[in-house]
């Protein structure tokens, strides 16, 4: 069990590092903001069918919102990795304004609470909620600061996994359990 947890953590760190360099390269090449979109899914299984459907649904929501705001996608890439689904898009526009639009999606519904929508400005600086004067995200279980709950391991993994699956199921309109 411990070995599999270490392997999973190493895979996550490798994927994060690879994503970091990919985003850095894209900001340099295009001199434009980059959107990195993943899901906040606890546990090792991040690619169950409903999670993939959920991620794809929100890619479409993001694209529609960008189109409505006349923000062009200059480059995009989707990968379904063992560490989770990853969408990266290079966008034409103001990074801070794009981040505000992504926060609207995150705060629109319970499903939005599972979205990890990061915006890197054209100079590769990450635009955070706090840089926009907004509070940190809340825990999906207790409503306290999510970062604190994660750091202090306040909730059992099974409880988090069940809650995430419930949110996804409700967001997709599924009536069955998985």
What does this structure look like?
Helix content is about 50%, strand content about 15%. It is built from 5 helices and 5 strands, in the order αβαββαββαα. It has a 5-stranded antiparallel β-sheet, with helices on both faces. β2 (about 75-80) and β3 form a beta hairpin. It is globular, with a radius of gyration of 16 Å. The relative contact order is 0.16. Its EC number is 2.7.7.61. It is an enzyme of class 2 (transferase).
How are the strands of the biggest sheet laid out side by side?
2-3-1-4-5
What fraction strand?
15-25%
Helix content: 40-55%
Number of strand segments: 5
Query: How would you state the average pLDDT, rounded?
Result: 92
Count of individual helical segments? 5
List SSEs in N-to-C order. Answer: HEHEEHEEHH
Per the principal axes of the C-alpha atoms, what is the gross shape?
globular
Distance between the termini: 23 Å
Low-pLDDT stretches are none
Radius of gyration from CA coordinates: 16 Å
> Pairing-aware structural class of the strands and helices?
alpha+beta
- Main sheet overview: 5 strands, antiparallel
GO molecular function, one term: lyase activity
Enzyme class: transferase
Protein name: citrate lyase holo-[acyl-carrier protein] synthase
EC number: 2.7.7.61
């Amino acid at each position: 069990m411990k070995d599999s947890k270490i392997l999973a953590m190493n895979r996550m760190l490798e994927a994060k590092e690879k994503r970091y360099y990919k985003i850095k390269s894209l900001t340099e090449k295009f001199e434009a903001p980059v959107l990195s979109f993943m899901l906040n899914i606890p546990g090792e299984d991040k690619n169950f069918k409903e999670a993939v459907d959920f991620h794809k649904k929100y890619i479409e929501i993001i694209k529609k919102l960008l189109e409505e705001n006349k923000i062009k996608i200059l480059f995009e890439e989707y990968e379904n990795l063992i560490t989770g689904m990853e969408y990266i898009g290079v966008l034409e526009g103001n990074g801070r304004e794009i981040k505000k639009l992504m926060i609207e999606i995150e705060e629109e519904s319970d499903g939005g609470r599972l979205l990890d929508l990061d915006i890197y400005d054209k100079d590769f600086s990450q635009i955070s909620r706090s840089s926009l004067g907004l509070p940190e995200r809340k825990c999906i279980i207790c409503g306290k600061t999510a970062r604190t709950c994660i750091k202090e391991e306040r909730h059992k993994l099974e409880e988090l996994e069940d809650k995430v699956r419930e949110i996804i199921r409700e967001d997709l309109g599924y009536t069955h359990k998985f």
